[in-house]
Amino acid sequence: MPENVSNTIAHITGELRKIVVGQDEPIEQILVALLAEGHALIEGVPGTAKTLTVKTLARILNAGFGRIQFTPDLMPSDITGTNVFNVAESSFSLRRGPVFTDLLLADEINRTPPKTQAALLEAMEERQVTIDGELYPLSPLFTVLATENPIEYEGTYPLPEAQLDRFLLKIILQYPSADEEHQVVARWDAGFNARRLNDVDVQALPAEAISQSRAEVRNMRVESGVQRYIVDIVRRTRDHAAAHYGASPRAAVALLLCSKALAAIRGRDFATPDDVRDIARPVLRHRLTLRAEAELDGATPDSVINDILQSAEVPR
């Protein structure tokens, strides 16, 4: 039943609140990605709790946690691992990379060149990696939560389109409100320190909780009218005057899965057009490429999606 999902999510959210202030909508979207068995790209300026949120989530899920700090000199083998020759035994053994975990924090993923970013493609799409011609399966829970700084910052590389499309959602973290920022300062003044998370009493979930919640979301069904609404929205991204090219059928599937997950988080066993509308921007914003002249006129992926949501006929 969806109540089990919403109870699990309520527990996660409550524990996150012990450490992270604000960011309610981005946190909900991260949990949507988790339930929909997808990966999330989290964009925000430094200091907006991107890394802190992911580290805390791993503790709450009682999951394996790996971290890659992406740098310009990072090599693909630093991500997947490599075979190392053991002289004493005259044989090779696999030195596993950070992808062999449950929750992977790909920190500042746009600080490394596309060749190294591409090392994650197989892992994200198929939950396996190939090393020296041999396949190695990854954890069924394997989820990439990648952070990036806005692309206009120096020293960053644009993510390849194929890489972007593997992310179920692109989540934007904004600056906190004045009240939320005051809470952050007050917590630190009272003794909280983000570098000492183990000092905070965080209650972990049972190991099977997320797997059960994912199964419940998979078993949800979406009525035909809402399915057609999803398809209509995605197809309109291809015909919009500002779009160089729009979202693919994979985006329609992503919008379906995320709508189901969001509905379950909200305690329902059915998705509504409101769920579709609420999750459309993070699902679609990284899958649109705008015409240069439209960008010069101030168009953004989010403004295009908003335009489409206003014009698409909502099923009754």
Descriptive notes:
The protein is an alpha/beta fold. Helices cover 45% and strands 16% of the residues. It contains 14 helices and 11 strands. It has helices at residues 2-16, 24-35, 50-61, 77-80, 114-117, 121-126, 161-165, 178-189, 209-219, 224-239, 249-265, 273-284, 292-296, 301-311; strands spanning 40-43, 65-69, 81-86, 91-96, 103-107, 128-131, 134-137, 143-148, 169-172, 243-245, 289-290. The strands form 4 sheets. The chain has a 5-stranded parallel sheet. It has a two-stranded antiparallel ribbon with strand order 3-4. It has a two-stranded antiparallel sheet with strand order 6-7. Strand 3 (81-86) and strand 4 form a beta hairpin. Helix 1 (2-16) crosses helix 9 (209-219), helix 2 (24-35) packs across helix 11 and helix 9 packs across helix 11 (249-265). The radius of gyration is 20 Å and the shape is globular. The mean pLDDT is 87.
Given helix and strand content, the structural type is alpha/beta
The helix fraction, in percent, is 40-55%
C-alpha termini separation: 25 Å
Mean pLDDT: 87
The biggest beta sheet, please? 5 strands, parallel
According to DSSP, the number of beta strands is: 11
> Could you tell me the strand content as a percent range?
15-25%
Q: What string, H for helix and E for strand, traces the elements in order?
A: HHEHEHEEEHHEEEHEHHHEHHEHH
Principal-axes shape call = globular
Counting H and I runs of at least 4 residues, what is the number of helices? 14
Low-confidence stretches: none
Strand order of the largest sheet: 2-5-8-1-9
What is the CA-atom radius of gyration, in angstroms? 20 Å
